[in-house]
Amino acid sequence: MQALSASDPRDRHEEAPPHPGPGLSIIIPCYQERGNIVPLFHAVRKAVTGYDWELIFVDDNSPDGTIDEVWNLAQADSRVRGLLRIGRRGLSSAVIEGVLSSSAPVVAVMDCDMQHDETLLAGMADAISQQGYDIVIGSRHVKGGDNAGLANAWRRALSGLGIRVAQCLLPIRVSDPMSGFFAMRRALFVQSVGSLSGTGFKILLDLLMAQKSRPRVIELPFVFRTRHEGVSKMDRKVLFQFVQMLFHHLRRRYK
């Protein structure tokens, strides 16, 4: 067998010191968000300084070239990754694939349109890694929170109705189960995957209804901002998927 030379790449790899992975993975599902990619990255970079983090954009093959913007950014900063999905659509399933591709013990989920407050991310991670919580919800409906960024009165009424319906079905009381901004232990997410419906936009509600035991949950207030760029994905199909997801869990509960 040929001996390894001093310049053999395998030899250099063995001598290299280990490089720890990130402490926080931030999952960003996106569609038609090209103009938001770079501003969101810079906002996260400025806000999250106490953790090594990775930013995982999950793009549903946007025709505006969103994934190209992500990949260009990833060439400049290795903390950015882009996951392109072909032939699959939907926020919940995008989040699931993003989390399963992550490596940090704490995962956070936020929208790409900059309506969620990135300055809350470090506090969310602290609540899990230092205070022992399992799930941290960015809430618009606790003291200090606000949903002013919702587009119109119809959206606010629809959100309020969805929250009231969800609260009737959840085993734990939370003020904003419809929030799209939350963090949790990655191990708990992975443990829950087999029970998720994976449909629609309300992945947090899906996760809360999938729990077999009561997780430790805390809600932190944030102000829901106006959209930076892009348009809302809310339509009748989303409402149908919301009902479909509720029935999925009700069937599981009463089997």
Automatic annotation (TrEMBL):
Secretion signal, residue range per the UniProt entry: none
Domain Glycosyltransferase 2-like: 25-189
Gene Ontology biological process terms from the UniProt entry: glycolipid biosynthetic process
UniProt-annotated stretches for the region Disordered: 1-24
InterPro entries the UniProt entry points to: DPM1-like, Glyco_trans_2-like, Nucleotide-diphossugar_trans
Domain of life: Bacteria
One Gene Ontology term, aspect cellular component: membrane
Keyword list, A-Z: Glycosyltransferase, Transferase
Biased composition (Basic and acidic residues): 8-17
GO molecular function, one term: dolichyl-phosphate beta-D-mannosyltransferase activity
Similarity section: Belongs to the glycosyltransferase 2 family.
Name of the protein: Dolichol-phosphate mannosyltransferase
Phylogenetic placement of the source organism: Bacteria, Pseudomonadati, Pseudomonadota, Alphaproteobacteria, Acetobacterales
